[in-house]
Fold each of these.
Amino acid sequence: MPQSKDAGPGEKGAMRIDTKLVRELAELLAENELTEIEVADGDRRIKVAREGAPVIGTAPVAAAAPVLTAPPMHAKEDVGGAEAASEEVTGTPIKSPMVGTAYLSPEPGAASFIEVGKPVKAGDTLCIIEAMKVMNPITAPAGGVIKKIMVADAQPVEFDQPLVIIG
């Protein structure tokens, strides 16, 4: 039998390995960037695995893609009304210094640190970014007026992603 091979000649009850199935499983691993796959048929189980290092390198990139999409920013524009969505906002963008989750208030249910149209002074807290269970305040580098809030409360943010525009 070219597709199957006994574990040893004459061994009763030895598992028969279907090499064609093993090859197909290995191809599925590569095509779908999986680290392991296992199939069971009664008492027979076949598990094919590979080292996870190549997949680990690509997984964060795939996971990060939705964070970089525009809908959360458009959702915030809609809150400001049609005028805010249509006009070009000028000013100084304050960008995230890290990857994390942005919070616009000090705690759930509390008032936001900032509001569009309200003035801020240098050093005022604009938002908080939680990274690795540490709350990091993001402060205004200079005084001005909040022109636009580019993130929603509890939104994941990427490094260098615009958070607020101050004018």
Amino acid sequence: MILESVIILIYSISLLLIFLYALAQLNLLFNYLRAKKAKDNCEKFNFSNPNEIPLVTIQLPVYNEMYVMERLLDNIAEIDYPKDKLEIQVLDDSTDETIVTTKAHIEKLQASGLDIKHITRTDRKGFKAGALKEGLEIAKGEFIAIFDSDFLPNSDWLLRTVPYFKNQEIGVVQTRWGHINRNYSLLTKIQAFALDAHFTLEQVGRNSKGHFINFNGTAGVWRKTCIIDAGNWEGDTLTEDLDLSYRAQLKNWKFKYLEDVETPAELPVVISAARSQQFRWNKGGAENFRKMLGRVLTSQNISPKTKVHGLLHLLNSTMFLNVLIVGILSIPMLYIKNEYAHLKPYFYVMSFFVLSTVIFFVCYWHMYKNIYGAGFKNFFKYVGMFFVFFSIAMGFSLHNSIAVLEGHFGKKSEFVRTPKFNITKFKDNWKNNKYMKKNLSIHVVFEGLLMLYFGFGMYSAFIVGNQGGDFGLFPFHLMLFVGFGYVFFKSLASKV
């Protein structure tokens, strides 16, 4: 009974942590709904007065971006802002032939009168954080706008964001990500679904109550003095944006999140690219939990509620580990439940935690209907999307849990960029992308084994006990089977 007791204990702790995270999401939903009714009275620069238009530097950190570099430069060149108040830095760490083609394209833009500079480094020390830091040293702007290579800001983007910096307490203005290839495939739809929840419910819910939010690495503007005051960019985690965001807010800088300003971007269209992005984000989240835990807990400037939300925010990626633990242990728990009759009261109590799924369902529905509209037809579509999203999210749980464990245990790894494709239509071909990894991760083998494991879990529902089976966990195991099956077969197909 010792092994069974250990399984029950670990399973219960993981369920409890997921439930607490769900409660935090529910609180963010209430914050979000209240914020939608509130009027924004934030003071803004009057750009009709030339004296109030500040000097802005746009930083474009890039690395081997053959497929999107020309699109990025042409798009940024169309930004509507006084030319004498705008500087553009192309922070180019490329090691392939794009270093030459980018230089030639920049020279053409310079000839048109645009203040754009091509800045290269002899090594990638600090990766993206290092490039941003070196560019900052010579940046002329009072405010620093940052765009990754797959982002396409609208021409009025600076006119809609920079005015908020009239409030001297604001250190960052962050905008919502849009998705130019949302409907390309099931994979892009799922990624868009997850990101939409973050950029509506979470960012607004946290920001409206003064809780910690994060600059998302792109599609935002920093006050230069805020970056310096917070300690500047540091490359000791894989999510330098989250790191600097917390250091700035611990210094009492305010963040302004603009849900109504959408910045279009391209989602990864291949699962290997999505995997590398997920790995970096989740490992970086765990690294920042290690780095920021003590600072958040001991800070005298923030409320207990903000501390709780901050810690759960930093533990966001760790929820994948809890989901994986619950999933793997759920099958032994199914047998324990039907073997030990005296534990029935415990399992009745444990059934309460299905409420976590209900909470997530309600929270995500509010996000979904804001984008697609309410009504029975859209709700019916949402139910299907929610099932598919949760299944595939759980299918990523092994891969992301490994990233989380590496982050928590301090294992260092290289900053692996996400390959860009410049693909928006289904007929576009991605298979010849030179930046895609050709090798298959060993993780994929274990994902295939987990697919079979949860298939066994579904079979177990028919044979356990002496009352004709137990189907309480069957839907959960079905979602895990579908999720790991999707990730496994999609990963194999991407290498063919």
Amino acid sequence: MNKLIPFLFIFLWFSSCESDDQNNLLPYVIVNETINLTNPEFINLQVPGGWAYANGGIKGIIIYNVNGSSYKAYERSCPQILPSPCSQMTVEQSFKLKCPCDQSEFNILNGTPLTPNINYIVREYKVTVINSNTLKISNF
């Protein structure tokens, strides 16, 4: 019986912690997109620092080429606002994401807020490089 007490304590500790999902305002949607980098709309993704918009997610996806071989993919819906007509983020100056509802800004490299008093990070999706011309974006 005494051996169960530490396990019970650990279980209660972890179950009482808040979720790591700081985007709890946004609804969950399944994301499963394949991106062909040779398509004209994704031509900018062929160079480091390039970005493009893609379909999928709640309000679309922003894809960013980090260094020529790794990519980031983010939800376009502003993380701190319930989805609305003005909550679709845009890329500004090729290095930040901007929410037109409240003019808040986020870092394109990691999704963290650049605007004071914003406590949500941008929802990030998993990017898998299938081959030199194909990316798979998903949230599972």
Amino acid sequence: MAKQTLVLGASSNPERYAYKAIERLVETGNEVIAFAPRAGAVGNVVFETSWNPNWAIDTIALYINPSRQEAYYQVILELKPRRVLFNPGTENPTFKSILELAGIQTEEACTLVLLAMNQYDSLH
């Protein structure tokens, strides 16, 4: 099974970084699940609006601010992703510690920059 990326905080606004990240992830051959509270799409990626505890996720790219992240702590831990990327503006030392204690890698990095530098898959 291919590695999947969950974009948490997806946006159908082309000006938003979450939108650009979904586009770039797809362009670079990554499987993407986009999650948002409202229906929408980026290209052929239709947003999931209901959380699925059975997603097989390798990486979660966060695009929600820290004040909204707490509602997702438990469900993210239950997904057991390999890593969580805290994109600029989403940095959260409390959640980072919780994830690391659970054995989940964390990185404060921009998904778009990692993809542009061909380092998205090489983080460890």
